[in-house]
């Protein structure tokens, strides 16, 4: 994966962090205003897929999975040229114009900004694509994924014709080289996912689904950017080291001065809450508070 030529998109008023680079993979969601439907009927859904087809081709995206719900949609895409923001402006903008024109209305149909979670391909892309196509089952709309027409499941499983914008080879290749066997194994994999844990338990800083090594590779993208307060704090601090690294040895083996220096660094430099630090090293919250706010080492 190439981590060069990245782009950072920053907006005022706590807008989400956008990390863009060639080859980046995202899980994207966009919801309707006040959770109102963004698809009124079959025509709307087909129109959205037509717009998505044009965006994928124009911006050279790779779409691995999608699901159109009633008041929101899910996409899993790879941006070969690192152009997520451009493509999303086109996708939501053109669809909004089409929807408004058809339903004789004006204004925004999407609620604020789309949400884009950066995804590590290894270990995370496959279960994430499964999660996306299982959304209708989890929401109670259908009892089985094959009963829902408006997702990528049927095409990937070989049960319906594949739309031209959908890439199924990568997913199916994870199950072998024989296409029919791979499709059968994919169906089993998705079925097993109904009882599987959500991939979001591994979500970090609200915007990254990946391992610690993946996050380390992204660090240059946020160099000297962590003071941009318009980005939500948890996202700005996505690349801070874990507390286990900030406190490499049992605190009982440190001098009070060493321990207190590490506590201040964890809170003041890396943004960890006093409660989180207290839990990690086994001290009372009030003790951590006094240490952070004093100038001299606290003698407890």
DSSP summary, beta strand count: 8
Number of helices: 13
Q: What is the CATH architecture term of the largest domain?
A: 2-Layer Sandwich
Proportion in β-strands: 5-15%
CATH topology of the largest domain: Alpha-Beta Plaits
Largest sheet: 6 strands, mixed
Reading the helices and strands in chain order gives EEEHEEHEHHHHHEEHHHHHH
Computed over alpha carbons, the radius of gyration is 23 Å
Number of domains: 2
Using the coordinates above, name the CATH class of the largest domain: Alpha Beta
Uncertain spans: 1-14, 224-230, 296-300
Q: Can you list the strand order of the major beta sheet?
A: 4-5-3-6-8-7
General form = elongated
Q: CATH H-level name of the largest domain... which superfamily?
A: Transposase IS200-like
Sum this structure up briefly.
This protein is of the alpha+beta class and 300 residues long. Helices cover 41% and strands 13% of the residues. The protein folds into two domains: 7-216, 2-Layer Sandwich (Alpha-Beta Plaits), CATH 3.30.70; 240-300.
Task: Looking at this protein, list some descriptive labels.
single chain, about 300 residues, alpha+beta, Alpha-Beta Plaits, six-stranded mixed β-sheet, 13 helices, about 15% strand
Question: What's the structural blueprint in terms of helices and strands?
Answer:
Layout: E1 7-9, E2 18-20, E3 24-31, H1 42-58, E4 61-68, E5 72-79, H2 84-103, E6 115-119, H3 121-133, H4 135-138, H5 153-156, H6 169-173, H7 179-193, E7 203-204, E8 208-209, H8 212-218, H9 233-236, H10 243-246, H11 256-269, H12 274-281, H13 285-293
Parallel strand pairs: 6-8
Antiparallel strand pairs: 1-2, 3-5, 3-6, 4-5, 7-8
């Amino acid at each position: 994966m190439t981590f060069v030529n990245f782009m950072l998109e920053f907006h005022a008023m706590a807008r989400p962090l956008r990390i863009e680079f060639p080859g980046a993979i995202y899980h994207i969601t966009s919801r309707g205003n006040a959770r109102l439907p963004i698809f009124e009927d079959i025509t709307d859904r087909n129109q959205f897929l037509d717009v998505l087809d044009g965006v994928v081709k124009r911006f050279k995206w790779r779409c691995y999975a999608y699901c159109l719900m009633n008041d929101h949609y899910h996409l899993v895409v790879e941006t070969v040229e690192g152009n997520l923001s451009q493509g999303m402006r086109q996708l939501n903008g053109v669809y909004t114009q089409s929807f408004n024109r058809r339903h004789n209305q004006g204004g925004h149909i999407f609620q604020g900004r789309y949400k884009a979670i950066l995804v590590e391909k290894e270990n995370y892309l496959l279960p994430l694509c499964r999660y996306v196509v299982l959304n209708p089952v989890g929401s109670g709309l259908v009892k089985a994924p094959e009963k829902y027409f408006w997702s990528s499941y049927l095409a990937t499983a070989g049960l319906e014709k594949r739309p031209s914008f959908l890439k199924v080879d990568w997913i199916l290749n994870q199950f072998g080289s024989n296409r029919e066997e791979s499709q059968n194994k994919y169906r089993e994999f998705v079925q097993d996912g109904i009882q599987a844990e959500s991939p979001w338990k591994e979500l970090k800083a609200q915007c990254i689904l990946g391992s610690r090594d993946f996050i380390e590779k992204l660090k240059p993208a946020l160099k000297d950017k962590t003071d941009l307060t318009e980005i939500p704090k948890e996202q700005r601090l996505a690349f801070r080291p874990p507390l286990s690294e900030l406190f490499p040895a049992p605190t009982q083996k440190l001098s009070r001065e060493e321990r207190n220096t590490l506590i201040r660094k964890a809170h003041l430099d890396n943004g960890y809450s006093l409660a989180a630090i207290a839990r990690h090293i086994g001290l009372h919250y009030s003790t951590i508070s006094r240490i952070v706010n004093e100038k001299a080492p606290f003698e407890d």
